[in-house]
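Retry 2 of 3 after timeout on previous attempt. Resubmitting structure tokens to design endpoint.
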């Protein structure tokens, strides 16, 4: 089923240095906004703001809940802060927090990854959340739907993966009930793509793979990578054949084309799977707007480019632009995450 909603996690402009709200340094106020790509609307502060300890966090969604992981393991109560900035019940949950998308529940503390709590690479698959570490590969699993459970170590991984490193965030592949990740170091002779399935376990997918990029997504057994080094800025790798595919942008009247993509050389921050063979490139940039008095005000502009994927033959894919949408986030210092919900 096609998705049209993207949740954006950002930090507010005034709280970045900790001076306006009386928050100690390195405490940030995370804000959450909902973007509707179908109606081309943005709902600012869709769920309550949440003080954060660090501005780099993993954001995942399971059912109607958001989970945020990352930061020190201690907890800090914000009840002494000025109530004009924070709800009296709001607490800073360092390391792990849960928020409801239904707006009827307060933020709450959830268990943190046991060994990857500071900067975990977390990802959701079905109803569970997985952490694979960052500097060191240490896989763990958390089942938030099964009561107040703790994280559990995944110990049955191949010995070759011991002491490996994970290259950026793993990629969910829900149609095949697995998670794909790029691993380096350890006992591996070369960088490799591995998959993990809760039912099938670990499988080597591609040995000696060096084309992994930070912005990537999977559709129909093809990993799509974004990089300015590619013509058309998007490239596809066929998992089953183990070969790179030719990728072409189809003609479109929707406002953006492959030719425009090549000319703009825009470096995107996320490649989002939107269901039904749809993908969405997302980017944020600094800009300024004029207020009613003609004064320039800093803001952040987000741009979303949504397109469908069509397989022509065993070697060729075409990308068909569907829609584009841009919107502003006022009083925002940076965007931390894009998440389809």
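Retry 2 succeeded. Sequence:
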């Amino acid at each position: 089923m096609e998705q049209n909603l993207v949740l954006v996690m950002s930090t507010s402009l005034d709280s970045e240095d900790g001076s306006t709200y009386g928050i100690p340094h390195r405490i940030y106020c995370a804000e959450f906004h909902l973007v509707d790509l179908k109606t081309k609307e943005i709902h600012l502060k869709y769920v309550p703001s949440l003080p954060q300890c660090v501005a780099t966090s993993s954001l995942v969604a399971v059912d109607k809940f958001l989970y945020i992981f990352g930061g020190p393991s201690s907890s800090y109560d914000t009840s002494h802060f000025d109530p004009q900035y924070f709800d009296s019940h709001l607490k800073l949950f360092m390391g792990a927090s849960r928020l409801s998308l239904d707006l009827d529940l307060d933020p709450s503390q959830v268990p943190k990854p046991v060994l990857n709590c500071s900067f975990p690479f977390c990802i959701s698959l079905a109803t569970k959340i997985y952490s694979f570490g960052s500097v060191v590969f240490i896989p763990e699993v958390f089942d938030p739907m099964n009561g107040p459970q703790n994280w559990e170590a995944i110990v049955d991984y191949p010995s070759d993966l011991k002491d490996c490193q994970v290259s950026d965030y793993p990629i969910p592949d829900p149609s095949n009930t697995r998670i794909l990740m790029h691993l380096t170091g350890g006992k591996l002779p070369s960088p490799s793509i591995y998959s993990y399935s809760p039912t099938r376990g670990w499988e080597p997918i591609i040995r000696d793979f060096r084309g992994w990029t930070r912005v990537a997504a999977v559709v129909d057994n093809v990993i799509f990578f974004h990089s300015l080094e590619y013509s058309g800025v998007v490239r596809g790798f066929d998992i089953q054949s183990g070969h790179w595919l030719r990728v072409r942008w189809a003609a479109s009247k929707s406002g953006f084309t492959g030719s425009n993509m090549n000319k703009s050389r825009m470096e995107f921050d996320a490649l989002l799977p939107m269901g039904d063979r749809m993908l969405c490139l997302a980017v944020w940039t600094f800009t300024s707007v004029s207020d009613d008095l003609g004064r320039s005000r800093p803001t952040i502009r987000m741009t979303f480019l949504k397109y469908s994927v069509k397989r022509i033959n065993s070697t060729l894919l075409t990308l068909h632009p569907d829609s584009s949408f841009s919107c502003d986030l006022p009083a925002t210092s940076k965007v931390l995450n894009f998440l389809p919900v």
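Attempt log closed. DSSP finds one helix and 25 strands in the chain.
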